[in-house]
Amino acid sequence: MLLLIQFTQPLIAESNKQWKFDLGSSEVEKGYVVVTPETTYSDNLGYGMLCPNGELCSVEAKKGDRLMDDCITSEQPFFFQLNLEEGRYKVTVTLGSASKKSETTVKAESRRLMLENITTTEGQSVTKSFVVDVRRPEINDSLRIRLNKREFGSTNWDNNLCLEFNGSWPSVSSIVVEEVKDLPVIFLAGNSTVTDQAREPWASWGQMLPRFLSPKVVVANYAESGLTLKSFKYQNRLKKVISVMQPGDYLFMEFAHNDQKKGSCYVEPFTTYQDELRFFINEAKSKGGIPVLVTSTNRRKFDEKGKLVNTLGDYPDAMRQLSIEEGIRLIDLNAMSKTLYEALGVEGSKKAFVHYPLNTFPGVNRELKDNTHFNAYRAYELAKCVVSKMICMNEFKNYIVDDFKPFNPANPDLVDNFYWPLTPAFDAEKPEGN
Questions:
Q1: Taking burial as the number of CB atoms within 10 A of a residue's CB, which of 57, 101, 253, 391 is the most buried?
Q2: Comparing C-alpha atoms, which of 172, 185, 60 is closest to residue 126?
Q3: In DSSP terms, which residues pair with 71 in a beta bridge?
Q4: What 3-state DSSP class applies to 4?
Q5: CB neighbours (10 Å) of residue 146?
Q6: H or E segment at 50?
Q7: Residue range 384-397: average pLDDT?
Q8: Spatial separation of the C-alpha atoms in residues 387 and 234, rounded to whole Å
Q9: Cα dihedral angle (53, 4, 13, 113), rounded to 10 degrees?
Q10: Residues with Cβ < 8 Å from 32, sequence gap 6 or more?
Q11: How far apart, in whole angstroms, are the C-alpha atoms of residue 213 and residue 433?
């Protein structure tokens, strides 16, 4: 059981807004704040550990390097939280255990995949860096984003940077957090297929995208379940994006799933849908931003011949046409998702969506059957689709991680080879929008 003992060591950032933490119970490295298994996070302390389903322990190695001679580890996922202001932060973690092989996956905020299954042998350590967007709903003193119900209390909009360490025996010996500025930002605008899904088994391509990008660029995901082009504006999300956008930043836009539904936010494909997209495009351009259109992912619906049925009507074609007319970059995720689902097949594609018979998904005691929203495997594959097209745009080539291999949705990764350690947060309810 995790002991609720608070350490009162003051948390002081250096003048360049850098915070350094030495994890473990042995002697602390000079200039670092010590974090032991008993340093439990609280708002008053401003930093600390959480291990909701297990116990943290400190593992020591032979003396010599104070920073790496011990680590915090557990058999269960654990979290580190740090109070921070809105901004972009480079996070550098040293991973590895002195006692055994370590496998660590790092997620940030609401399950954004940052580092995938970093493996070290006994006594080995590896240092990796990534960049996290930390944000608030406030735009100015009088205006703020109108959050949806599920977003209240979300780690995307609170006062903390939240890091999740997961996998088989995750182990961390140090964490350094440093504010960074002047990095290009990729803003994401969209719906449930793009947003950071906070709970298992739901996932989106937007929250997988950071794993494939280097610390030279930031992903700021403002998408939310159930949103349309109009509601994204009404909730002041576009105002928030534009308020922090700098020249050279990007705005990726994927909308259609909810925009096609009758109601106050409905838009016609070749008229009002294109008009709303033009508004987003012009707003981004007004700040020197670069708009990128992303056609919507397909739903899972097959005909009797095993071919995917188009349930999105003319919206993908309307976006393609707009891209040509306005000279806007296009990522045709609609076409790639069709190829991907047909390659997986009628039954195989169920493994890419949230399809789980009764009592087969951990933490959920009901059948799950959803042909719109996807699980972590499909989200990961769709993110690779997006990145494969980003590589074709010259300005993105320097932002892709070195280990990214050419990806063809007609030859998807085998689902049995996909490893996703579950975050200890589950929800049987479907996200808004279907």
A1: 253
A2: 172
A3: 59
A4: coil
A5: 11
A6: strand 47-50
A7: 94
A8: 30
A9: 0
A10: 20, 21, 22, 67, 174
A11: 28
Say if residue 176 is in the same domain as residue 225: no
CATH number at residue 322: 3.40.50.1110
**In angstroms, how far is the first alpha carbon of the chain from the final one?**
40
Residue 211's φ and ψ, nearest 5 degrees, are -60, -30
Please check whether residue 424 lies inside any domain of the structure.
no
Residues 69 and 122 in one domain: yes
Neighbours of 100 (CB within 10 A): 14
Look at the block and give the residue holding tokens 């909009």. 157
Pairing of strands 70-73, 57-60: antiparallel
> Could you tell me the sign of the dihedral formed by the alpha carbons of 253, 258, 263, 266, in that order?
positive
Does the residue 428 lie in any domain?
no
What digits encode the pLDDT tens for the residues 24-54?
A: 988 888 899 999 999 999 999 999 999 998 8
Query: Domain range holding 45?
Result: 1-181
Verify that 286 and 196 share a domain, yes or no: yes
Q: Does one domain contain both 161 and 187? A: no
Q: Which of 181, 209, 241 is the last residue of a domain?
A: 181
Q: Is the peptide bond preceding residue 201 cis, with omega within 30 degrees of 0?
A: yes
Residue 432 included in any domain: no
**In the structure encoding, which two tokens stand for residue 158, read together?**
């609170």
- Looking at the structure, do residues 337 and 287 belong to the same domain, yes or no? yes
Q: Which amino acid is at 170?
A: P
Q: Cα separations (Å) of 406 from 204, 218, 392?
A: 21, 22, 11
Rounded distance, CA 49 to CA 26, Å? 17
Q: What is the pLDDT of residues 72-101, one digit of tens each?
A: 999 999 999 999 999 999 999 999 988 889
Q: Is residue 150 part of a domain?
A: yes
Q: Is 144 left (phi over 0), alpha (psi -120 to 50) or beta?
A: beta
CB 191 within 8 A of CB 226: yes
If you ran DSSP here, which 8-state letter would residue 273 be given?
I
Q: What DSSP assignment string belongs to 370-418?
A: EEEEE-HHHHHHHHHHHHHHHTTSGGGGGGB-TT-----TTSPPPGGG-
Please tell me the distance from the alpha carbon of residue 176 to that of residue 91, in angstroms, as a whole number.
Answer: 6
Cα separation of 97 and 169, whole Å? 9
Distance of alpha carbon 152 from alpha carbon 399, whole angstroms: 32
Sequence-distant (≥ 6) Cβ neighbours of residue 405 within 8 angstroms: none
Q: What is the Rg, in whole angstroms, of the alpha carbon atoms belonging to the chain?
A: 22
Give every CB contact of residue 89 below 8 A, 6+ residues apart in sequence.
131, 132, 134, 161, 177, 178, 179, 180
pLDDT in the model for residue 393: 92
Report helix, strand and coil shares of the chain as percent, to nearest 5. Answer: 20, 30, 50
